[in-house]
Design brief:
By secondary structure, the chain is of the alpha/beta class. It folds into 5 domains: about 160 residues, Rossmann fold; about 40 residues; about 70 residues, no CATH class; about 80 residues; about 60 residues, Arc Repressor Mutant, subunit A (Orthogonal Bundle), CATH 1.10.10.10. Helix content is about 60%, strand content about 5%. It contains 25 helices and 7 strands. It has a 5-stranded parallel sheet with strand order 2-3-4-1-5, with helices on both faces. A two-stranded antiparallel ribbon has the order 6-7. Helix 9 runs antiparallel to helix 10. The chain is globular and about 80 Å long.
Length: about 450
């Protein structure tokens, strides 16, 4: 039973009886996914869940795929044109509520189409109000910019907004007792005070008895077979629900030992986004590289393939995969992600070319922040450390003589560096080069 959330579930179910956009917002850990699961189950009473509600969740590693989340919910391809997508999606929903969990991690097209469909069918968006950073590594693109803009517009036009609040002390105590009956009264009161009504914190603290989540998970995996340990790490590296075809024979054991859960679509998933990140660290570097390479052989999405090839040490293959896929896709946001992977996998001498291509496609996709960041990478990749120093000083307006004095080199050497900077950046004069220096900073 979901503790302390009956009123919220009832409000959402009642609002979903007629067309409209219902937004359910919550801070991380307040049980948003559990509430939406309860909503789906309540709507589906007396009918199979998979036919009563069109449901899917945002997948941050695949946020660059336009329409993916809504396609998973409706089980049909989603056209790129908004009007066509709304018409087709409304027919496919056939009056059933459309429920998108983790909408803050969904692609912008799915959010925009779902919001427009709300004129014809009930649409429920689950939104984490303080989403986790979409950037896993420094320099990695933020493909969620368009999605957040679409989501903000959707929330602004919502017919119903429901906010999850922290549990009351009474409900928090009940949840802790359900998690660990052996805790004494003093420990329960201490945990209630520490967690401040956050269900995830309550369950984690009560279930692990002050042991870290990573250590608890590692201990559980030592009791599993090598295949299950590999599946656990692979699921963490994917960062999203996956089927046995990707995870291997150990997927069933993960579910049997309750380390992971089986979804209605046959996929295996962790119960918390935290566990994905933890699981991805539970292997030696050599084993992690091998799992990355194995996933690259099994995946279909070129962005995922190239990313796993890159992390698995297959740099040439990652570059070739990314470049080939980028040249074959019409979507600028996807191309930008692929160009960036190509740049990370290629030599510094070639990386600038891919960074410039990424910047152009970011601009086409309407993401000037990511475009500027890619431009900075392009400049840094093209120039040597000394040339970067000279470029930086050009940006401050220093003359060649002043630069030579600061770097303690001859004026002739500075002139050679300036000429090399202009050539590599394709700048016609010092003014254009200085503009590049401002962008780089």
């Amino acid at each position: 039973m979901l503790v302390g959330r009956d009123d919220v579930v009832g409000a959402v179910v009642e609002a979903a009886r007629s067309p409209g956009l219902i937004v359910v917002r919550a801070d991380p850990g307040l049980g948003l996914s559990s509430v939406l699961t309860a909503v789906a189950e309540r709507i589906a009473q007396g009918r199979p869940t998979d036919t009563a509600v069109c449901r899917a969740a945002g997948i941050r590693p695949l946020i660059h795929r336009p329409g993916l989340v809504l396609a998973r919910a409706l089980r049909i391809p989603v056209p790129h044109d908004l009007d066509d997508a709304v018409r087709l999606g409304t027919v496919a929903a056939a009056g059933r509520p459309v429920l998108l969990d983790d909408a803050d991690a969904a692609d912008h097209h799915s959010v925009a189409v779902a919001a427009a469909m709300a004129h014809h069918v009930p649409v429920v968006l689950g939104v984490t109000t303080i989403p986790p950073s979409p950037v896993d590594r420094p320099g990695e693109p933020d493909p969620g910019v368009d999605g957040r803009a679409s989501l903000a517009a959707a929330i602004g036009g919502a017919t119903t907004v429901v906010d999850l609040t922290p549990l009351s002390d009474r409900d928090a105590t009940t949840l802790i007792r359900n998690t660990d009956l052996a805790l004494d009264g003093g420990s329960v009161r201490a945990l209630v005070a520490l967690a401040r009504g956050n269900p995830l914190v309550l369950v984690t603290l009560a279930g692990t008895r002050a042991t870290s989540v990573r250590r608890a998970m590692a201990v559980q995996l030592t009791r599993c077979s090598p295949a299950a340990r590999t599946a656990a790490v692979a699921l963490g590296l994917l960062g999203r629900p996956a089927g046995a075809a990707l995870l291997g024979g150990g997927a069933a054991e993960l579910v049997a030992t309750r380390l992971a859960a089986a979804g209605p679509d046959g996929t295996v998933r962790y119960g918390s986004t935290v566990l994905y990140g933890v699981a991805a660290t539970l292997a030696a570097p050599a084993d992690l590289a091998a799992i990355h390479r194995r996933l690259a052989e099994l995946l279909a999405d070129p962005v995922e393939i190239a990313a796993h090839q890159l992390t698995g040490g297959l740099l040439d293959r990652a570059r070739d995969t990314a470049v080939t896929a980028a040249r074959g896709t019409p979507h600028p946001a996807v191309r930008a992600a692929l160009w960036r992977l190509a740049a990370e996998a290629d030599t510094p001498a070639q990386a600038a070319r891919w960074w410039r291509a990424a910047a152009e496609d970011h601009r086409r996709a309407g993401d000037p922040v990511a475009a500027a960041e890619a431009d900075r990478h392009a400049v840094r990749s093209a120039l040597s450390p000394r040339e970067l120093q000279v470029l930086s000083m050009l940006g401050t307006g220093l003359s060649n003589v002043a630069i030579a004095r600061r770097l303690r080199i001859t004026t002739d050497t500075v002139e050679d560096h300036v000429a090399a900077v202009l050539r590599k950046l394709g700048a016609r004069n010092r003014t254009e080069a200085a503009a590049s220096a401002v962008t780089t900073r």
